[in-house]
Design the sequence.
């Protein structure tokens, strides 16, 4: 098989020049030509430039998580995935901008300014891995490593016409990754092809004793990459009724094409459970975030913002957080309150188990669950900021992507329609640790241009 990334002729200086010429897009928090990489001629990533979402710790390089509270944070250690990329000979050129502390889905809430859609400045990029998506979409880098807590890689991938991969929970170490909600957080990859995803995944995955959730797996994803020609798909019956007209036609046309070549079965979802996904996600993720970020007091972590006594110092430091993060932390603290913990948080975890079982049952008796990646093209910034799209029906389809985080299963967004700023993808899913099969299915669809 052709070495996909090597064939693209990327080099670090060219990527830096392109990045600097696109500063107006605000995709980068820190630009750096990291020559500390170890040359590794045996690696397919040797001398290949790339970027990391600024949630990933890099020794001696600013790591902000997109938040002003971490503006002066320079880690004294590397995230495991960064060490793996260094060992693979890859060259870091950028720490990418993202929604503050990963807590957003638009690319509009970073403490370092909004990430601008390179194809239409009036539309969002999607988030929280927004800066990563921009840099891959513009061929600044062939791949970028991001994080995905709900759909934070897969949605911007759809909006930017990219491949976005969220692997099974536990196959990529989260050591050194700033947490949002640890039971949901997953490190993943954005690229333009399945082969590129597989190459990067093979490099950064694997067991890590520093991460208590890390799993021992066969991680030869690129070596074992081959199209899976015989596929049985599950589709959600009548899901198209929750799609906007312009993407509905694209989705239905795609379903028609795959039905001519592969077997398809339809299943239904209890609407009451489906509508509960968003609430369960918020309860669990906001609660975990509140707990994880409790040490952002400017003493162990966080920028000093005045004060003498602990409460004053911590309060002043928290003033550096953006409004969205403050809001979510307050809600999380409410769920952690003794009066609410059992009746809200623990109950939400029980419903999560029900939803996880639902998700896995959708994938019983099939090779892959296929759903639309979203209900619309990238929305207009003004519509997001004015809350014009608040009707829950607009978000029922993307809510389904959160179930892969609930269940810890692999999930892949594959582009099926590209027209400048109007891009759209489908989302492919398999069961836990079926990452190789998912990549092989994605490759089959990609190579056949279905």
Sequence:
């Amino acid at each position: 098989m052709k070495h996909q990334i090597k064939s693209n002729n990327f080099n670090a200086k060219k990527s830096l020049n392109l990045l600097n010429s696109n500063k107006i897009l605000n995709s980068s928090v820190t630009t750096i030509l990291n020559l500390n990489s170890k040359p590794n001629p045996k690696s397919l990533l040797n001398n290949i430039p790339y970027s990391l979402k600024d949630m990933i710790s890099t020794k001696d390089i600013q790591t902000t998580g997109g938040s002003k509270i971490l503006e002066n944070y320079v880690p004294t250690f590397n995230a495991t995935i960064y060490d793996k990329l260094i060992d693979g000979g890859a060259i870091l050129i950028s720490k990418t901008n993202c929604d503050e502390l990963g807590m957003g889905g638009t690319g509009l809430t970073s403490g370092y300014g909004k990430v601008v859609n390179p194809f239409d400045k009036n539309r969002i990029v999607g988030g929280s891995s927004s800066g990563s998506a921009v840099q891959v979409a513009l061929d600044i880098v062939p791949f970028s490593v991001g994080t995905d807590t709900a759909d934070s890689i897969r949605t911007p991938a759809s909006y930017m016409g990219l491949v976005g991969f969220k692997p099974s929970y536990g196959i990529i170490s989260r050591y050194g990754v700033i947490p949002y909600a640890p039971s949901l957080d997953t490190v993943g990859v954005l690229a333009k092809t399945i082969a590129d995803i597989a190459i990067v995944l093979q490099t950064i995955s694997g067991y890590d004793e520093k991460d208590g959730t890390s799993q021992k797996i066969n991680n030869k994803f690129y070596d074992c990459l081959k199209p899976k020609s015989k596929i049985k798909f599950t589709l959600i019956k009548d899901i198209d009724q929750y799609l906007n007209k312009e993407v509905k036609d694209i989705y239905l046309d795609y379903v028609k094409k795959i039905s001519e070549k592969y077997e398809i079965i339809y299943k239904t979802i209890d609407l009451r459970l489906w509508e509960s996904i968003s609430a369960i996600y918020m309860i669990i993720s906001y609660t975990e975030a509140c707990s994880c970020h409790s040490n952002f007091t400017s003493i162990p972590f966080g920028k000093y913002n005045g004060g003498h006594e602990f409460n004053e110092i911590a309060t002043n430091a928290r003033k550096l957080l953006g409004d969205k993060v403050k809001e979510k932390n307050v809600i999380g603290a409410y769920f952690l309150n003794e009066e609410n913990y059992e009746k809200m948080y623990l109950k939400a975890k029980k419903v999560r188990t029900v939803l996880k079982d639902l998700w896995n049952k959708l994938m019983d008796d099939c090779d892959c669950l296929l759903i639309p990646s979203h209900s619309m093209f990238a929305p207009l910034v003004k519509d997001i900021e004015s809350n014009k799209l608040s009707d829950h029906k607009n978000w029922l389809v993307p809510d389904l992507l959160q179930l892969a985080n609930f269940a810890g299963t692999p999930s892949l967004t594959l582009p099926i329609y590209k027209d400048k700023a109007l891009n759209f993808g489908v989302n492919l899913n398999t069961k836990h640790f079926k990452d190789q099969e998912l990549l092989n299915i994605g490759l089959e669809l990609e190579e056949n241009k279905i």
Remarks:
- The chain has 14 helices and eleven strands.
- The mean pLDDT is 95.
- Residues 37 and 86 are 5 Å apart (CA to CA).
- The first helix runs from residue 4 to 7.
